[in-house]
Structures are given as C-alpha cells and as structure tokens.
Amino acid sequence: MNYKLLGRILGKIMILEGALMLAPFLVSLIYREGARNVLAFLIPLVALAAVGALLQLPKPRRTALYQKEGFALVALVWIVMTLFGAIPFVINGDIPNYVDACFEMMSGFTTTGASIITDITLLSHSSLFWRSFSHWIGGMGILVFILIFIPEGDDGSSMHLLRAESPGPQVGKIASKMKVTARTLYLIYFGLTVLEVAILMLDKPVPGYESEKFFFSLLASFGCAGTGGFGFLPGSMELFSPFSQYVMATFLVLFGVNFALYYMILMGKIRDVLRSEELHGYLLIFLAGLGTIFLSLVGRFNAFPQTYTTEEAFRHAFFQTASIMTTTGFTTTDYDVWPTLAVTVLFLLMFFGAMAGSTAGGIKTSRLVIAVKGIYIRIRKLINPRYVPKTKIEGKTVSEQTVSDVFAFITFYVLILFTTTLLLSFDPICGTETVIVSDAGMHIEKHGFFSNLSASLACISNIGPAFEAVGPYASYAGYSVFSKIILSFTMLIGRLEILPVFVLFSPKTWMKK
User: Fold this and answer.
1) Backbone angles phi, psi at 159, to 5 degrees
2) In angstroms, rounded to a whole number, what is the distance separating the alpha carbons of residues 292 and 339?
C-alpha cells in the first residue's frame, strides 16, 4: 500500500475542502451572522489547510496507484470530508450532536438528502448554504475534480480513481486525456447549474422571502444539479410557484442524463445521442411512471384525501417522478397519502435511478438494460445450447464479465438493502407512531417494517425522503445513534456503488505482500 501517495492525495482533498468552506464563510459574513457562525467555518478551514499541507511533506517513492489503492482512497476521501464537513454545524450550534452532523454531511456529500433537521427555519444562512453546496460538490465527485490537477501518467491511476467514484457499469474517457475528460464534465455541470439559476431568477420570489430570491435559486440549483434533496424551506419545494417547480423538474430530468451524451451533442453527434439505448430506456421508464401516477391521481384510486386540479395532478406527478427517479428527493406535496398505485410506482422508481454517468444514484438504467438483455440471452441459451451469446448496448458488444458484474451488483444491492432493514429493526423507534402534518391534513404513521425498508432503500439509492415515518414531511431524527451510523455508511455504499467501501474495510487491502 502506497501510504505516502495516498496521504498526499488525501491532503490535496482536505485543502480543497477547506477552500470550498470559504463559500459558506463568506455567506456568514454577508448575512452578518455573528462571530460564532464565522468561526464555525474558519476553524475547520484552517485545520483542513494545515493537516492537508502536512500530508504533502512525505515524498512517495512510487507515483502510481494500484486499483485497490484507488478504490480505498476514494472511500477514505468521502469519509474524511464528512468528518470535517460536519464540524461547522457543531460549532455554530445548528446541529449540536456530532453524529447527527456527520449524518447530515454524509447525506449532503452523497447527494442523498436524508435529514435529521426537524425545523429547517432554525438554521443559519451559512448552514443552509453548506448543506446544499455539499450536494453540488458531491454530485460530480470530488476525485473527478482533483483529476484536473493531478499529473496524468501512463499507469492508469487516474482511471482507477474515476472508475471508483463514477456511477455506472462502465467508465471511460470522453476525450483523449483524462484531465480533459474531467474538465469537460465539470464545465457541462457548471454550465447547466448556472442556466438553471438564471431561469429560476426569472420567476417571482417565494412569498414572504422576497429578499432571498437569488439565495433560494442558488440552493435549489445546487440540489437539482447534484440530484440531492435537502430542503431549505418548510415543505421542501412546496412554496415555490408552479413555474419554478416545472423548471426544477425539467432540470432534474436533464441532470439524470449521462453527461457523455451532452459532450456528444457539443461535438455535433446528435444522431448518436438519439440512438442511445440507455437514453431510450431512461425516458421510457420516466414517461411510464409519470403517466401511471398522473392517471392514478386524476382517477383518485383508493381513499385519496387530497383534491388536485388536472394541472396540479400533472405537475405533482411530473415533479415527484423526476425527483424520485433521479434520486433527488425534493417534494412539492405529501406523496405518502397518494393512492396505492402511485406510491407503488414511486417505490419501484427508487430502485431504478437515472442514467450511468449522471449525478443520480440507484441501480442505473444501463444496468437494467444490460440485465434484461442478459436474462433474454440466458433464456435463449437454455432453449438452444448451441446459441452463442452476445449482449450489445449502444451498438457495442458487452463482455460476459460486464454482464456478470451487473448481476453481481444487483445481488449485492438487494443484499445490503435487506441487511440494513434488518439492522434498523433493532432500533427502539420501531413500533412507535409519528404524527405527520402536511398539505393533505394530519395523519399518524406507524414506524415499522415499511418505514425501515423505504429508509434503507432511500439511503442506498441516495434519495433521502422515503415513506411513512420517514416520508416527505418527516425526518430521520428519531433513529438511534446506531441506526444513523448504519444509514450513513449505507449512503456511502450507495454513492460509491459498493466496491470502494468494501475494499477500504477489507483487511487484505492493508496487508503487506
């Protein structure tokens, strides 16, 4: 294990996190939040810079990273960033409990959006900014950003880092050099974020928050870009106008698209984009989910207490389908009281996720496409043993190893999901009841199996809000310290897609040969 090189890269990340804390530090100065909030970001900022600088001193003999080192480093980086990123909340008193603060920051950096905050109006502007900004930071990936600055060699180190942090079954360059690839991805990411802010600024401000128009547009865009669901107003996005809700939902769909397709559009390869099988699958699932939910709301299946106009039904269906499928978790209404059919569709969409190479979580559309084709080929092989299997996606043959990896990933995914659900069942909160007050009125939710199952799924898919006692108008505050730690690691496993976290905690990773 190349400890010195790992330390140097980790040190660079810590310096970067310290530099990123300058943004909420400036927010605290702009809003004149007092010395406590200013020091809340200044102290960890200085600490990160100092420790990061010290880690640059040892000179590694080997400058290459092996695959296991790259995977372990990525998981370690996200944990360290969370541990330091939680400190401001404890210092300024917005989240006094350090475990709760770590849960909040892990949720932020992994773009999950699960929160322990019960009253969002009590948080300072700088804390609100840091929470939402963490979504934007984690959306594209910290290591992807660092690749812009790390010298690129011929040893494959950069590819190991990109493969460990980027979502999806296959990772490759979209340009000739890895540094150009990372820079291109971030330029597209930044450009789409700025565009959303500009469009949201065209709308009227949220009633009662006229002076916060730009601030809220920025936070909403951070959440949409990173597909993270931290709300910063009561009821998440409920107070925004229909225009802003449509804009956010549209950008959620856009940020759920593989960023490589945007690069192809810039290169003029529009026909190749339109022929993308993964894009077809993504849009097909999205439209099917939207149509089914819309019809169930209009038809008012079951004992549905809420009355929507046709436009409201479509808007809420459009927003929640986009939000759940892209694993964002923003809400405009209490979907927990929707008809059973609509709730079932949303629950299934929590598994699917968006496209590989996007900022979304979940299993990913590309894996679903490969899995369906893999099952079809195996059925044909059973019927005709002489049949030579050949799985193709995007016109290219996918190796049997990739198909096997997809099935292994889905198996691991389901296994972790049910293991987490089992561990949560030991929490004393199970069996208790929670009073939920929403736009549909007041109702009581029992914290039981479905609450724990949906919470586990929401965390491993990096969605945030789930159902019942952890639904859109509730929080994760009631869970014990043990459960919060379990869910924090579940978020990390979901964001890094399992293997890097397993590699980090495997004893063989750190054994000397």
Assistant:
1) -65, -35
2) 11
Tell me phi and psi for residue 508, to 5 degrees. -65, -25
**Per-residue three-class SS string for 408-456:** HHHHHHHHHHHHHHHHHCCCCCCCCEEEEEECCEEEEEECCHHHHHHHH
CA 424 to chain centre: 21
- Enter the tokens of residue 98: 């350090």
pLDDT values of the chain reduced to their tens digit, one per residue, 513 residues: 777 888 888 898 899 999 999 999 999 999 999 999 999 999 999 999 999 999 988 887 777 677 777 788 888 889 999 999 999 999 999 999 999 999 999 999 999 999 999 999 999 999 999 999 999 998 877 656 555 555 444 444 555 555 555 555 554 444 445 667 777 888 899 999 999 999 999 999 999 999 999 999 999 999 999 999 899 999 899 999 999 999 999 999 999 998 889 988 988 889 989 988 889 999 999 999 999 999 999 876 555 666 788 899 999 999 999 999 999 999 999 998 898 999 999 999 999 989 988 888 889 888 888 888 888 888 888 888 877 777 777 777 777 888 888 898 999 999 999 999 999 999 888 767 766 666 656 667 778 899 999 999 999 999 999 998 898 988 999 899 999 999 999 999 998 888 778 888 887 777 665
> In degrees rounded to 5, what are phi and psi of residue 116?
-100, 0
> Helix 67-85 crosses helix 481-495 at what angle (to 10 degrees)?
140
* Cα–Cα nearest to 67, from 513, 512, 505, 499: 499
Residue given tokens 């998981």 in the structure block: 75
Alpha-carbon Rg for the chain in angstroms: 22
Cα–Cα distance for residue pair 57/59, rounded to 1 Å: 6
Which amino acid makes up residue 334?
Answer: D
User: How deeply is 238 buried, as exposed, middle or buried, from its count of CB atoms within 10 A (0-12, 13-18, 19+)?
Assistant: buried
Q: How far apart are CA 258 and CA 221, in angstroms?
A: 18
Query: Which amino acid is present at 353?
Result: G
Q: Quote the pTM value.
A: 0.90
H/E element holding 433? strand 433-438
Contact 462, 488 (CB under 8 A): no
